[in-house]
Write a structure and sequence with these properties.
It contains 14 helices and five strands. α6 crosses α8. The chain has 302 residues and is mostly helical. Strands 2-1-3 form a three-stranded parallel β-sheet, sandwiched between helices.
């Protein structure tokens, strides 16, 4: 696990060349068909060489929850183990990892009417003001959310309006994980945050060169996509959508997309710091793969 642009896929593929593993994607963006460039999705040849799961399973118009991920991942893990192989869960959607490890609370399903009310409030006063209201009713959740993280602020407010209880309180009563597996958890983290930021900028520039703008344009032609869909809220896709709508030019697109990706990385690191029993490796180390492969045998044979 680890923040975006830390090289998780490369490490996983190297491990797959040495160990009998199959990769299970733990990424809330890779589930969408047609969203390839902006998600840095492994290409077809790579997925032929190493079997991948939970990639390209729904259309961009559909929703996919942490609960669905947990159910799907457990089913796939059981199948992999039954075939004498090892599941290698790889990705940066920390909520999915948390759901798998700890189980899920009984949170209410999304309610479109409630979301429309919250969106209308945000349109009137701005998301930072909604975040301040969240601080009043659920300070624990507000503390871990960026004031402009509209998707997560909306969900936290929605849960409070539907249940009358803070999301943090409901999560605290989560279901037991009951995992029939021993987890070996490792994370790739940057020794120097500035270098990761440079990687993020370079990677987005490469995405533009590979045709990210045309990819989003084609998605809009092929699907009835609205800006509030989870797929279109993915980092990069939201900013390109706003660019195509004429909200700003190419230079501002670069700035906004890179800034949003840096914020995503910051949130992922915050989740990691709160996760126990994880061995961290500096993703910038020149001998990263060697360090991991020297550490793993002791974990595989305790």
């Amino acid at each position: 696990m680890g923040p975006t642009a830390t090289g998780k896929t490369g490490v996983a593929l190297e491990l797959a060349r040495r160990l009998p593993v199959e990769i299970i994607s733990v990424d809330s963006a890779l589930v969408y068909r047609g969203m390839n460039i902006g998600t840095a999705k492994p290409d077809t040849d790579t997925r032929v060489q190493v079997r991948h799961h939970l990639i390209d399973i729904i259309d961009p118009t559909e929703n996919y929850s942490a609960a669905q991920f947990r159910d799907d991942a457990l089913e796939i893990m059981a199948d992999i183990v039954e075939r004498g192989r090892v599941p290698l869960l790889t990705g940066g959607t920390m909520l999915y990892f948390k759901a798998l490890r700890e189980g899920l609370s009984d949170l209410p399903a999304a309610n479109q009417d409630t979301r429309l009310v919250i969106d209308a409030m945000a349109a009137d006063v701005g998301w930072p003001a909604i975040h301040r209201e969240l601080e009043r009713i659920d300070p624990a959740t507000a503390q871990r959310l960026d004031p402009n993280d509209s998707q997560r602020i909306q969900r936290a407010m929605e849960i409070f309006y539907l249940t009358g209880k803070p999301m943090s309180a409901l999560i605290a009563t989560g279901k037991p994980a009951e995992l029939p597996y021993r987890l070996i958890s490792l994370a790739l983290v940057p020794g120097e945050r500035s270098v990761l930021h440079q990687r993020i900028a370079e990677r987005f520039e490469l995405m533009l060169e590979l045709g990210l703008i045309n990819e989003v344009r084609e998605l809009r032609e092929n699907y009835d996509l609205k800006p509030d869909l989870p797929s279109m809220r993915c980092v990069g896709y939201r900013q390109v959508g706003q660019y195509l709508d004429g909200e700003y030019g190419l230079g501002m697109l670069r700035e906004k997309a890179v800034a949003a990706t840096r914020q995503l990385a910051k949130r992922q690191l915050t989740w990691l710091r709160a996760t126990k029993h994880v061995r961290e490796f500096d993703c910038l180390a020149g001998d990263l793969q060697e360090q991991i492969e020297a550490w793993l045998p002791e974990q595989l044979n305790p």
